[in-house]
């Protein structure tokens, strides 16, 4: 099983002394695209005003330009530790034990606008780039979509897509029985469902942490649903597949 997570705008500073090595990252077929994106980000950061506009940054976010300027030289840390924000705060990866982190290395993938697909333990620097950022002469969707979709199609077993729809658009997961997109909802007293935002991210983080802590062996979506119920989560098949034919699961927060 693969748990496919979105990234976060916010990142931890610091890391070990080793600088970014694109050859060390998972999904080696994406290395050539990563070379293009990291070089473009570092070059654009040499023009701070241009980068502020490209990233839609405010006047107090100049440190993000510095991060991007130094992206090829700054210290790295595992991707699952680098990201912060609601989902990753709920996941709280730095407090996971060694067994859980080893399981994460094999089962968790983070989808980055800069690096594409990352293994949970891939060493990356702090940076700033979003799915809708604009780089000179580069359209992120055109660059990433087919390459990421191809990589995800190679994944066997269950692919559980916990990304936002914006990142799904940068590289869709395969449309097959054991691939499912998770939508977090609330259910009121009359049974009406409502999609969530903040609690959406928190629920996904808590769910991912529970999986990493329990380390279940999951071979099908039905087995995943059964495990989730036993673990105290309300995870069910959605009322129907979406317009694109993608199977949906509903996680009630």
From TrEMBL:
Domain of life, source organism: Bacteria
Lineage of origin: Bacteria, Bacillati, Actinomycetota, Actinomycetes, Micrococcales
Name of the protein this chain belongs to: Peroxide stress protein YaaA
Gene Ontology cellular component terms for the protein in this record: cytosol
Native source species: Agromyces fucosus
Example of a GO biological process term: response to hydroperoxide
Pfam family, one: H2O2_YaaD
